[in-house]
């Protein structure tokens, strides 16, 4: 799932949500909000089908494979409290999600690609793992290379994302500072997480 390279507009249409943020995929959903191949209205899903769709939203949105999602789920289930909330908050703490939420890229796929290509540093160390979970006090910066900074300058300048309370973003200095852990109000994906928890608890 993390390396999905198929038609992103079809995924948005099938799930009825913007899980891929590139312009073409968004337009595909806006033009036709029925699943691919369907000329009539969406067929009513079973309870299992609905839960499966909600689970797919999480996997595509955050770029997770089944094993990664299962790992996060087991981490969340081991904690006291709301398992679904902990699951989504773990996803929000991924490095690629942080880069995207800070407005350094136009999508999570682009953020993941930049990290894999070693464009970013975490606490002064160059990293290439998009799934790193950040913690308060962590600092994410661009590598101090002219070609890398030139590549991201236009992206950062044109970013129109709302500010994130738990991140301090210095766009001119290409720096993201994690001020706190995200809370339930910071979750960026609208999803029926209770259905996903019930499905994965079987």
UniProtKB/TrEMBL annotation:
CDD domains: S4 (cd00165)
One GO cellular component, as annotated: small ribosomal subunit
GO biological process: ribosomal small subunit biogenesis; translation
Domain of life: Bacteria
Presence of keyword Ribosomal protein: yes
Keywords: Ribonucleoprotein, Ribosomal protein, RNA-binding, rRNA-binding
Keyword Thylakoid on entry: no
A Pfam family it matches: S4
GO molecular function ontology, one term from the record: structural constituent of ribosome
Small ribosomal subunit protein uS4 N-terminal domain: residues covered: 3-92
Domain RNA-binding S4 residues, every copy: 93-154
Purpose: One of the primary rRNA binding proteins, it binds directly to 16S rRNA where it nucleates assembly of the body of the 30S subunit. With S5 and S12 plays an important role in translational accuracy.
Family (UniProt): Belongs to the universal ribosomal protein uS4 family.
Matching HAMAP family: Ribosomal_uS4_B
Assembly with partners or alone: Part of the 30S ribosomal subunit. Contacts protein S5. The interaction surface between S4 and S5 is involved in control of translational fidelity.
Protein name: Small ribosomal subunit protein uS4
Organism, as annotated: Planctopirus ephydatiae
Taxonomic placement: Bacteria, Pseudomonadati, Planctomycetota, Planctomycetia, Planctomycetales
